[in-house]
Amino acid sequence: MLKTLLPRTFKKPLSPSIKRLYSTPPEPLKKKVYSRIPLNSEPLKNPSKEYKKQGPDFEFATWKGLVLTGVVGAGVYVYFKHEKKRIQTQKEADSNRGVNKNSGYGKPLIGGPFELIDTNGNVFTQKDLEGKWSLVYFGFTHCPDICPEELDQLGEWLNILSSKGYTNMQPIFITCDPNRDTPEVIKDYLEEFHEGIVGLTGTHEQVKHVCKQYRVYFSTPKDVPKGQDYLVDHSIFFYLMDPQGEFVQALGRQYDGPAGAAKIMDHIDAYNEDVENGDLLAAKNKRWFDKSVLEK
């Protein structure tokens, strides 16, 4: 009976599921490729070359934008840094001279009217400070070391300022020892230093008065026999005065070489910008206002 069943079993047709299991698998379905070509336009003849041709233009535009952004950002940074420095410098100058811009009131703490004579015998007053930037130093010709060092420092500043175009400067030497420092003595003494330094002297009372105006301390020994040498104690500062003859800053020995010249240029730049912008309190209240003398 088994023999009769087996042939009949294998002769029976295979079911569809069996056929699919043992037959060769069909090819995978291919995705339909959609065209990227816009309507009413012609396809590219050589797409790879065309896209390569367009690539560098896009890359250049990107770098150009980055460079432009960097340049603009750097410009804004430099501007605000400069403006911050200018405002700080102006505040420092206003604070030194005792000016309150918000209230419009203030009184100079240093400086004021005085009358002396120069090495040619001409009268020199506070009015002669107007129209130029002045560097005022108090000393005496018999000073063994400090005064010569400070006057050499003054010469270095003037050379740096001149090389940068800041030529509207007036260096001034005022003696604290009028008994020995006559106009002739001062004139000979200043020949050893930077040319253009204005030497000033006067009577003991005149010198005492100008030292008081500039808050300069000085003292000479009493009852010194005639002809005997002596030293004079005095303050060691350069007083920077603006073209209106008003005090800006006292420069001490910490401002040596380029540092002192840079500080002076900062004040000049800040002052000139304020005048050009009409932002000085002096524009309506101060007596001197002439842009022509503010040029470097």
From TrEMBL:
Residue ranges annotated for the Thioredoxin domain, each copy included: 105-273
InterPro entries per UniProt: SCO1/SenC, Synth_of_cyt-c-oxidase_Sco1/2, Thioredoxin-like_sf, Thioredoxin_domain
Residues where Cu cation binds: C143, C147, H234
Alphabetical list of Pfam families matching this protein: SCO1-SenC
GO CC terms, sorted: mitochondrial inner membrane
GO biological process: cell redox homeostasis; intracellular copper ion homeostasis; mitochondrial respiratory chain complex IV assembly
Gene3D superfamilies, sorted: Glutaredoxin
Compartment list: Mitochondrion inner membrane
Positions of disulphide bridges: C143-C147
Keyword annotations: Copper, Disulfide bond, Membrane, Metal-binding, Mitochondrion, Mitochondrion inner membrane
GO molecular function list: copper chaperone activity; copper ion binding
Family that this chain belongs to: Belongs to the SCO1/2 family.
Record protein name field: Related to SCO1 protein
Organism: Hanseniaspora guilliermondii
